[in-house]
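Example 4.3 (complexes with small molecules)
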Amino acid sequence: MSLLTILEFPDPRLRRKAAPVEQVDDALREILDSMIETMYHAKGIGLAATQVNVHKRMLVIDVSEDSSDPMVFVNPEITVLDPEPLGHEEGCLSVPGFYEMVSRPRKVRINALDRRGEPFETEAEGILAVCVQHEIDHLDGKLFVDYVSALKRERIKSKLEKEHRLQKAEASA
Ligand code: GNR
Ligand code: NI
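Answer. The structure with nickel (II) ion bound is encoded below.
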């Protein structure tokens, strides 16, 4: 297991569309375990492979209080069970320091493969529904800032670009 680097907006690699996983093998499980470690280290409740520059359809989530319930979803598909929009303040490890209200369907069914490659199905509401939709967006190259106004998005982009310039300058000093 190892800590992976999380890409940050507006990195164009966050816009790539992830390809379906063909085989759930030890090499894939190794990446999934590193993703779980990286998610806990960054204090996130979810992480999509796209965010660590792996362009495969898989994600990890842990919405438990005590980081005791890591969930793995490979090739996830969602079906909306209740389209009634639920607004939730969202953040993203790829957009550090910014939080915005996003509305999404409040209840979904998730079909996916588990870490053994076995299909499973589960229903999600509340923060799990929010998070799984946020993560699947990542696999499609979409970010929560795409749901806010262009003006807000541009402001966030400028601030993060400035931060990245400062980080680069510090690193080379
Ligand atoms: O850690 C995270 N918290 C969060 C809060 C509200 C809505 C979505 C999220 S996901 C985010 C981690 C992340 O960026 N996953 O892609
Ligand atoms: Ni995110």
